[in-house]
Each structure stands twice: as structure tokens, then as C-alpha cells.
């Protein structure tokens, strides 16, 4: 191997700076300030500390790098290009923010190799990184340090640290003592509105220390100082935050250190002036060969470590397990076990809250699938996510499988994203449905990234009773159903609850929300449970019997029972009525039109929807001419049975609506 | 006045404890542990520190008391009953958690006097309290310390402090040095899942101090220690957190200090044992006369202070201003000024992003309405919420009217709720529409409480372009439209943007979301702007001209322009087509059926909806048989015009859909 050229640190960093600034200029859109400010820190990280092999960006034991300040995406793209990561030719950078380029406005997971997670919505990256660092500890506890031994590095900006989710994540990381998590805070004192002093006076080091972190400080433009801090951070027994004092837009003579270089192109004049100030005479997208070579060498720095690792893995008695784990291959038998469970439920009448039925399904599944990692936002006993097979995960026992997330729904969801991204794990966790509101920004990222995370959302309507309107979701189902990529399931009974879990586990490309009742519901599916009927999203649970179908009653979850009773009233009056259970709008929408029309009885009379939630979204199913029995506003505090009467969600009301539509008042 | 009976502090506190535990027992539902644990602290607060006159619970200069740990609602109800607050007879407490009682499961604003805000969703109370304390400072800066001089006291639990929103609020309060804010942390070491040590290791005092708070500590069962800390806290020049070490369920022999008394009734045996342990032989809901008298005296403690205040107010030159301010009476003239502005816009063709049009409307409104308080979550220049009339509000200038909330959407919304609750202010603030996701739990409370808060939500579709899918809302409009009590307006042009602001300001009983484009939109309403057409939610912007209406194109916001162009294509082909602008689903739904049918052309051919968002929710307007041109999933990163083509949201596509429905392919 020939000697590498003599290239200064400044040149290496300037390569990032100008790739970033020139790409933003070309796109006439983007954020040059952050990459220019953090170029020195990133150069030290990628040339001396980060464990990676650019040619093999999916190496399981690589260090993870998360750009939490996702608007500085060009920093990441410049690094991926310079290190020679596959799929990042210079044209990708020229195509920054253009359709089809992997170099999207913000880093998008799946758009190109080396993007470990989607960032942009502030605070999500740091919280997701906590999940990655946690997964690393979990992997290490399971497979040993000779196979699993990597760090998670995060670049976070002031905005990330102002978002509340960051506190949830920081607090949990400190509690779990995730010592391989290192956050590089881009302490530039600037946000979009100007100096951070307009909105914050926080002592960030003290704040992190209050959560059990170690903290360090470095001049973000002094490579040796940065290196020293990083070296120290790698030895820590706790997560580490390094406050990197930087100048935003470093090198831009008139705009550096101000919000002016945060979110818009520098402009041709300023960009040229920056070239002169930094001694970078090269044209846009032109990196001189010596710099290019040294960056390529940095990209290959980890090749030997990776090869050694491959050798160790090959020799490991845990090799097969590790590969299965990371490929998400579950051990044989879980489906059969679940099918037997479902068949047993479906063979005899009974009553059970679906949250408990979900817990029963988890008791079957978690012993069978070691990848499943449970948890709850401090509602364990209510959401039934803890099983015998899942011991608590603690700082002393990363082999555990149940995470007490604390009252931190938002952080919980992001941490689940991080575990799923890291690889291998199938995280699920529970809270009340109404609090899906607190975690939705992270759930949105589960959807956007296509991560198989399962949300267990219980206490799903006024059926929760006395806790009242703050706890009673009326719009939350609509919010979930409106989220693209998410499959929302609201099972009607214990059988459908078991089916929902099978559907969730079969999904590899997106999240699932399982929405469950607090109150007991009778088993309505007494068909032996051979077929997973919920898989079609909706199906005829009971066909009209007294004559041809004139009424179709369509309901979900706890209201299927009400529809069932309404059907009896109608049939007793000689009106043929069918009940459709519709656990998932999304799965039903994906069925052939003929199937949907047949189920909904589109050519057979009138339709009534029943759900203890708002009508919003239901016209897709019942048509604007259909009737709906549900909520019209917020709930109230009272026992559940009183509330169902009070809000008129009863079998009598459903039957009456149907007769109204038929023009046959009782 | 005769001497008050000798009653021990313990008896006073036990009155709270047993009212709470007995009410929970009677309801067979609720949270006894927190009221029993915090009864001593609350007793000291309400008998010695809190400035209030129970007979006049709306006295403007009262101290505010916020029970952020809302599940401990019986603590508040017991205090309201004992102090003699109107509307809180013992029967109200007997009716705890029953329909119609003011004593709902969680404190519900508006259900009874003395409930300062709705709490229950954790973290909301403390963040709302920051808004109240801020409003106090603002009032004081405006009206002087002789009229405005009160504290805001908060009881917060571990759960409140784990939620991310608490960090946003704490940080902002510290930054603004809200010295009249005092948080009493119920440091009992217990959450639902058990010991807080399962999920957190945080040094809370250090955390608050990092944000610029003073902190103190007290034994929460030592009245003198509590009093000393409260006394000290009232002298602080910064917000204060007092860590009150308490035992949850204090007095319940076998359940105190454990999660078992957190969220369920104690049970008859344990309750009786608590009676014996605490020396409280009285029957359920029976408070001995001496205790009752002393509590009633506490409720009247502030009567003299209130009367003195009334005298000072009567003598104040600012009296009329103060009363107008608190009654929410705006100075004359704002409507005329806005009408003139609208008429000017509507009288000549032009093009302007609606976010800029909103800013222009604010330039007219903010000088006219001093109650309007602006702000943004660090996107001031993008959301156009800052006007010439609104100087920045800082710790040095509470007379300011523009709040730099920082990147803290959730805290921002809760702080706006707090300002609105405190009285007088009309807060509005901006962020990107997609980040409404971050603040929705607080917006939900704006709706539930009926608070006139205005959310300015810009960059409302793929029209924002290059920032890509993380920043492009596709489901957010559905989420807002699904929220009961909220009016969502998506104006089509500058005229409708001005109308939206008039609608928002006329709303006194609920929040408004104004959803705005990043990109320029042509002025389509060139009718002189006399009538506020948006007030009806939807209207015919352009009727079919070439013949009878056969097609109705229904669009919102930036897509109205596309519908307009599609109409031209159809009309050119001899197909009569109308364009309906539908800025608000909610306002339109409230119109008479005949009006809606006429606007939508329900008896005149086919309907096509156009919106750069998902179809979810649109079937209400276009019917399930209608066509829709919009998004079917997440967006992408590219210039806006490219994206509109890419996703097929074009006039050509709209016209083609209409012809398809008519069965007349071009």
C-alpha cells in the first residue's frame, strides 16, 4: 500500500464544507450552516473514531451514526460520498433535493446506504439513537462482546435538545447507563430565529448530568481537542455528551455565526468569499485527488476490523443464532402455537377484555419469538404487555425483554424505532389509545421508514369509563387510520385479538397499531378459528337469516357486540340484517372491490356504522347516505355502561337508525 | 368574630385524605394514593399561602392552583368542598366520577368553579401553569403590581416530570425567569408500574437548576418544613421547585408507599385500618364541625385581600382597561380595518403565499387588538407571525407581545392554553403543519376546554417542496379535522386568509387552526370581499358557465387554483363545471342541508375532491362514489412543481377524473 498523500485536517473538513454549501447552492434550497460548522467534528469522527467499512455499510457490528439535526443532511451525504459508500457518486450530491436522488432534503432511511435513520423532525434522531444503543447492549448480552461491540454516535443541535422528546430519551439512556452512546452537541448558539438566547438559558451539561450522563466539552474547530474528548468518551461507563463549541457556517465571512446561514443557500458571492477565506480554490463538486484519496482511505479504515469480525463470527458457536436474529427469522412453531390458541378461544363462548386477550396472545408468542421485546409507558398492568417470558430489562440485565419506559410515550416509540433499525428486534409496547397522541410523531416515522413496530393501544373508547374525556379517545382512531403505512386493528373479541397479533408479526415493512378495549367483550367468533378472518380487514360475521339482507351493520371492536344485538332486534322484526366486523380499514381497503361490495352489502339495502368514536372517516365504508351510531364530541366521566346509554350507542339506537333508513319506523 | 376551634394540622389534612379515599371507595374507581400523600402539603398551601377567596373563585388576582397530577383529582375536589367554593356541596363529592357531577375522574375545566385547567394527560398541567405564570407577569407589566400580584402553584408528580413536555415548559419558565411560579413536586418514588427506580434515575433538583430554577426540599409530612420552603419560594427571583418527599397513600397501613394505592380504591378493610391508624373515627363524607369551620375559615382567608384589591381596582386609572382586557373585549375598529384590508385584496389580481397573507392580516390586527400575543416555535420568518406591533417578550420586557417559544411546539401550545385560561389574552403561534403532530395533545386540551387559541400552521403540503416527506403533512389535515371542537381553516388565497383570521377572532369558545401554504397562490376571490364567504365553510367560487352544472370540483387551499384550471379545461370541452372552495369542513357541516347540497351539486352530476393530502375524511363531501385527486402516501423531496406533477395533482388529472365519472373520456 503506497503512502497516503499529505493532506491537512482543514482540507478534509473543507471538502465536506464545500460539498455541502455547493449542493445547497445548486439546489437553491437547504441548510449549509450546520455542515460547515460541524465539518471538523465529523472529520475527526469519520477519520479516526467511527468504526465502519464504507464498502460494507450493513456490517452488523458497525458503529451507528445518527444525524439528529437532520436538516444538516448534506453533512451526511458528503461523508457517504467521500468515504466511498456504495450508491453515493458525486451525481447523487448534485441531485440534492431533487426527485429520485438519495440525497433528499432530510436523511431518509432506505433512500441510500449508510442512512441509519430518517431524521428532520427535531429530537427524533437522538431518541432513536437511544434505541440503537440499547439494542447494542441487548445484542451484546445475547451474543457476547466478541461479536457485538460498537458505539452509537449522534450529532444533535440546539433544536433537538429543546424538543421534549430529547429529555425522555436522555433520561432513559442515563437510567439504563448506555455507555456506548455518545452525543455530539453542535453548540453553535444559533437557531432559525437567531441566537438561542432568545429562547433558552439552559445549562445543557448540567441537564445531561442530572440524568446520569458524563459530559465533556471541546472546541469544535480544534481537531486534537475533539479527538481527546472522543477518546475519553469511548472509555466512559455512562452515556456521554460532548458539547462541541462551533461556529455555524464556519468559513462564510459575513454569515458565519448567524442564523443567515442556517436554512438558505449562502449565495454566490458569500460562497466565493468562503472559498477564499478557507483556501479552497476548487470548483463546485470538485474534490482534489489527494483529499479524495485520504477520504477513501478513511472509508476503508474499518475493513480489517470488519474482516476480523467476520472471522470471529464464523468461528462463533452463536453464528447461526446471530444471523437468524438479525435477519428477523423467528424460530419455527409460533404460528402453530398461536393458531392452537385461537382455535381454543374460538371453540367455546366466553368474555374477555381484548387488552387481556392481547396479553394472552403475548403469553403464547413471547416464549416462541425471542426477538419480541415488550414494554409500556408505565401502564404495564393495564395494557397487559408483560408476560412470563419477558423479564425486565435493566442496566444490570440487558438480557431482559421487558422495558419500563416510564411515562414517556414519545421516547418509547422512538426507542422502538431505534431497536427495529438496529436490527433483529420486534419491539412492541403499550399505552392508552388516547396517548397515541403523545407518540404520534415517532409513530409517523415508524410508518415512513417501514419499521415493524407494534403499538398496543388499550382503553380505546368511552368504554374506559370514569377516567373521563381526557382519557377517552374519540378522534384517535381517525388519526391512526389517516397515517399512511400504518395498519390499525381494532379487534372485536379475543379471537380477533389473536389474529391481530399474527397480522402484526407477519408485517415486515411497517408498523401496526392494535387497539384494545378495557372492558370485557364476549367471544363472537365461534367458528373454530381456522382462518385468520381479520386479515381481510372486514368480513361478514353474521349474515342475514330471516330473509334477504336489507341492512348491513358495520362495527369495530367493542361495538361489534352492539351491532350483534341490534341485528337480533331487526331480525326479530323480520328485517334481514348482517353484521360486518371491520377490524382494519387499511386491510379491507386492499381487498378486491367485489369482495368489499359483497361484505358491505352495497347492493343490498342500507348500512349503519357503529363505533364509539367520531364518524370522521367512516363515510368511506357506509357512504355519505349511511347512518352512523357513535360519538359526536368528547366523552364524559361515568361508568362505561352509563356512558354508552348517555351517548346513545346502543343496540336499540342502531336498530332504529336502520329502520329509519329503510323508511320503516318501529 | 368568635375564636376558631382548636384543630390540629393532622385533622385538617385527614379531612382531605378521607374525603378522597371515601369518594374513590364509593365510586369504586379512582386514585386515593396521591391525595393522601399530598394532603399535608395541600393543607399548608390552602390554609397559609394560597391567595384566594373561596366565595369568589374568579377573582382576577387570585393565586392559580394547578393540579398537574390530575389523577389525584379528589385532592382538588376535597379542597374546593372544604373551603366552601360555590358548587361543591358534599353531594358533588359523593357523585365523584358519576355523570353530571362536577367531580369528574380528572379535573375538567368548566365543570365546576375553582378548576383552573383540565389535567390528567401528564405534563400538561405544569406546562399550562407556565402560561398562567407568564400571563401574570404580562398582566403586571400592563396594569401594575397593585392590581396584579399573584402566584401560580403547581402540584406535579413523577409522571408529569417524565413527560417531555415538562422539560419544554421548565426550560422556558427558567429562561423567562417566572419568579411567581412554584412547583410542588410530589416526590413519592412511586408510579403505576412500581418504584420510579424502574424507569428513572434523574436528579430532579439538578435538572430544574440546569434550566435556571431555584430548588428547595421539604419533608412533605412536616407542616412547618413545608411552610418554610413555601415562604422561601415566594421570595425567589426565579421559578422554584420544591421537592416534597411524601409517602403515597399516607396512612393506609399496608398499601402506603406502594403502587397498590395509586390507582384503585383502598378496599373497605384497608380504609378502616387507615381510619384507625390516623385517628379519624368519622364516617365517610362526615367532617366534624370544628374541622369544617376551620377549613371554611381558610376559604375566607383571602376575603379581605380581595376586598382591598377591589378598592384598589376601583381607584385605578387602568380599571376600565383591565376589565376590558379580562373580559376579552377588543377595542373597536379591528373588524373594519380587516374588512378594508380584505376588500383591497379582493379588488385586484395578485399572488401571495397564504402564510404571507396571514402575516399581512396580522399586521392589520395586532395593532388593533392588544390582547393578541404572537409567537412561534423557532420558525418566525417562515410562519409570518411576527408583526411590527408585537415586540419580543423577554424576561426584561413582559410588556412584549411576541414569544420566542424555541423549538418546543408542545410546550408552546400548552403555554397558550395557560395564557388563555389566565384570562384576557388571545394567543396565536406558528409552526409547520406537520409539526402539529408534536403539539396535538395540548391542542386537544384547547378543544376540550373551549379555549380561543389560534394555531398558525404553514408549509401545509407537498407544496413546501424540497424538505421532503418528514416535513410534508399528508395526514395532518385529517388529524385536525377529526379533533372535536377545533375549527380548521385552509384558505385558498389572501382573501380567505383574512377571512380565516376574522373567524378565529370571533370564536370565543374553542381553538382555530389556520392552515397555510408556503408557495404563492393567486387571488381567486375577486368579488370585492364584502361578505366573509369562508364563514360558511364552503361556497361556490365559480359556477358552471358553459351550461348546466355537471361537475363540481371541490378543493381547499392551494388546490383551489388547480380546480380552477381544471374547470377551464372542462368548460372548454363544453362540460359545465363549478369550483367549490371548502376552507373548513366543520363550518360547512354546520350549514343547513339544503345549502350544502346546493353547493356540492348533490343533484347535479359528479364530484371531484382535490387536496394535496390523503382522501381520508373526504368521502363526507364527495361521497364514496366521488373521485379524489390528492396524495396516496407520504411525499418526496423535490421542488414543489415537480412534486405536483409527480403525484399527479394537476388540472389535467382533475379534469380527466371528472370525465371518467361522467363516462366521457377525452
UniProtKB/TrEMBL annotation, chains A, B:
Binds 1 thiamine pyrophosphate per subunit. It comes from the Bacteria. The keyword Coiled coil does not apply. Keywords: Calcium, Magnesium, Metal-binding, Thiamine pyrophosphate, Transferase. CDD domains: TPP_PYR_DXS_TK_like, TPP_TK. It catalyses: D-sedoheptulose 7-phosphate + D-glyceraldehyde 3-phosphate = aldehydo-D-ribose 5-phosphate + D-xylulose 5-phosphate. SUPFAM superfamilies: Thiamin diphosphate-binding fold (THDP-binding), TK C-terminal domain-like. Pfam families: Transket_pyr, Transketolase_C_1, Transketolase_N. It is an enzyme of class 2 (transferase). Its cofactor is thiamine diphosphate; Mg(2+); Ca(2+); Mn(2+). Its EC number is 2.2.1.1. InterPro entries: THDP-binding (IPR029061), Transketo_C/PFOR_II (IPR009014), Transketolase-like_C_2 (IPR055152), Transketolase-like_Pyr-bd (IPR005475), Transketolase_bac-like (IPR005478), Transketolase_BS (IPR020826), Transketolase_CS (IPR049557), Transketolase_fam (IPR033247). GO terms for molecular function: transketolase activity. Gene3D superfamilies: 3.40.50.920, 3.40.50.970. SMART domains: Transket_pyr (SM00861). Residues 352-523 form the Transketolase-like pyrimidine-binding domain. Belongs to the transketolase family. Catalyzes the transfer of a two-carbon ketol group from a ketose donor to an aldose acceptor, via a covalent intermediate with the cofactor thiamine pyrophosphate. Homodimer. This is Transketolase. It comes from Albidovulum sediminicola. The gene is tkt.
Amino acid at each position: 500500500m503506497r503512502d497516503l498523500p499529505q493532506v491537512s485536517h482543514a482540507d478534509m473538513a473543507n471538502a465536506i464544507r464545500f460539498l455541502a454549501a455547493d449542493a445547497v447552492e445548486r439546489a437553491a434550497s437547504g441548510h449549509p450552516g450546520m455542515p460547515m460548522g460541524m465539518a471538523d467534528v465529523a472529520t475527526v469522527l469519520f477519520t479516526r473514531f467511527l468504526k465502519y467499512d464504507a464498502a460494507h455499510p450493513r456490517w452488523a457490528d458497525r458503529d451507528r451514526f445518527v444525524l439528529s439535526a437532520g436538516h444538516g443532511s448534506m453533512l451526511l451525504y458528503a461523508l457517504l460520498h467521500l468515504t466511498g459508500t456504495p450508491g453515493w457518486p458525486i451525481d447523487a450530491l448534485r441531485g440534492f433535493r431533487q426527485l429520485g436522488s438519495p440525497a433528499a432534503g432530510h436523511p431518509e432511511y432506505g433512500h441510500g446506504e449508510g442512512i441509519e435513520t430518517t431524521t428532520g423532525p427535531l429530537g427524533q434522531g437522538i431518541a432513536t439513537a437511544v434505541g440503537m444503543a440499547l439494542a447494542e447492549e441487548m445484542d451484546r448480552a445475547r451474543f457476547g462482546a466478541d461479536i457485538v461491540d460498537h458505539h452509537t454516535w449522534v450529532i444533535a443541535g440546539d433544536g433537538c435538545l429543546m424538543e421534549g422528546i430529547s429529555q425522555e430519551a436522555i433520561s432513559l439512556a442515563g437510567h439504563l447507563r448506555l455507555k456506548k452512546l455518545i452525543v455530539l452537541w453542535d453548540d453553535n448558539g444559533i437557531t432559525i430565529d437567531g441566537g438561542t438566547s432568545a429562547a433558552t438559558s439552559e445549562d445543557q451539561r448540567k441537564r445531561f448530568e442530572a440524568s446520569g450522563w458524563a459530559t465533556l466539552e471541546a472546541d469544535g474547530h480544534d481537531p486534537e481537542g475533539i479527538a481527546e474528548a472522543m477518546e475519553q468518551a469511548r472509555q466512559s461507563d455512562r452515556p456521554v455528551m460532548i458539547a462541541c463549541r462551533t461556529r455555524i457556517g464556519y468559513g462564510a465571512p459575513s454569515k458565519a455565526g448567524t442564523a443567515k446561514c442556517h436554512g438558505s443557500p449562502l449565495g454566490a458571492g458569500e460562497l466565493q468569499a468562503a472559498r477564499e477565506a478557507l483556501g479552497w480554490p476548487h470548483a463546485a463538486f470538485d474534490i482534489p485527488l489527494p483529499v479524495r484519496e485520504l477520504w477513501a482511505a478513511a472509508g476503508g479504515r474499518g475493513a480489517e476490523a470488519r474482516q476480523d469480525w467476520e472471522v470471529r463470527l464464523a468461528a462463533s458457536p452463536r453464528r447461526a443464532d446471530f444471523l437468524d436474529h438479525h435477519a428477523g427469522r423467528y424460530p419455527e412453531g409460533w404460528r402453530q402455537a398461536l393458531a392452537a390458541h385461537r382455535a381454543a378461544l374460538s371453540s367455546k363462548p366466553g368474555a374477555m377484555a381484548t387488552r387481556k386477550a392481547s396479553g394472552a396472545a403475548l403469553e403464547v408468542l413471547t416464549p416462541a419469538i425471542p426477538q419480541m421485546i415488550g414494554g409500556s409507558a408505565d401502564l404495564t398492568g393495564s395494557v397487559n404487555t408483560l408476560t412470563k417470558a419477558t423479564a425486565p430489562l435493566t442496566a444490570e440485565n440487558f438480557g431482559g425483554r421487558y422495558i419500563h419506559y416510564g411515562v414517556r410515550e414519545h421516547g418509547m416509540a422512538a426507542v422502538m424505532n431505534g431497536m427495529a433499525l438496529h436490527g433483529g428486534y420486534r419491539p412492541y409496547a403499550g399505552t392508552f389509545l388516547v396517548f397515541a397522541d403523545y407518540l404520534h410523531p415517532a409513530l409517523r416515522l415508524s410508518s415512513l421508514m417501514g419499521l415493524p413496530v407494534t403499538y398496543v393501544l388499550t382503553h380505546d373508547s368511552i368504554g374506559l369509563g370514569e377516567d373521563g374525556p381526557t382519557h377517552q379517545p374519540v378522534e384517535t382512531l381517525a388519526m391512526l387510520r389517516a397515517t399512511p403505512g400504518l395498519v390499525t386493528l381494532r379487534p372485536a373479541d379475543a379471537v380477533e385479538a389473536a389474529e391481530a397479533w399474527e397480522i402484526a408479526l407477519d408485517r415486515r415493512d411497517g408498523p401496526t397499531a392494535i387497539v384494545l378495549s378495557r372492558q370485557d367483550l364476549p367471544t363472537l367468533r365461534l367458528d373454530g378459528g381456522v382462518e385468520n378472518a381479520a386479515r381481510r380487514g372486514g368480513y361478514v360475521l353474521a349474515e342475514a337469516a330471516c330473509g334477504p339482507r336489507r341492512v348491513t351493520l358495520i362495527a369495530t371492536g367493542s361495538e361489534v357486540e352492539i351491532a350483534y344485538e341490534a341485528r337480533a332486534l331487526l331480525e326479530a322484526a323480520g328485517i334481514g340484517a348482517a353484521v360486518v366486523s371491520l377490524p382494519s380499514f387499511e386491510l379491507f381497503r386492499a381487498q378486491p372491490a367485489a369482495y368489499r361490495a359483497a361484505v358491505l352489502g352495497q347492493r343490498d339495502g342500507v348500512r349503519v356504522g357503529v363505533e364509539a368514536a367520531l364518524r370522521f372517516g367512516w363515510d368511506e365504508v357506509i357512504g355519505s347516505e349511511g347512518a352512523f351510531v357513535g360519538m359526536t364530541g368528547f366523552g364524559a366521566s361515568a361508568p362505561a355502561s352509563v356512558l354508552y346509554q348517555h351517548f346513545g350507542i346502543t343496540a336499540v339506537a342502531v336498530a332504529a337508525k336502520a329502520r329509519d333508513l329503510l323508511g320503516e319506523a318501529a
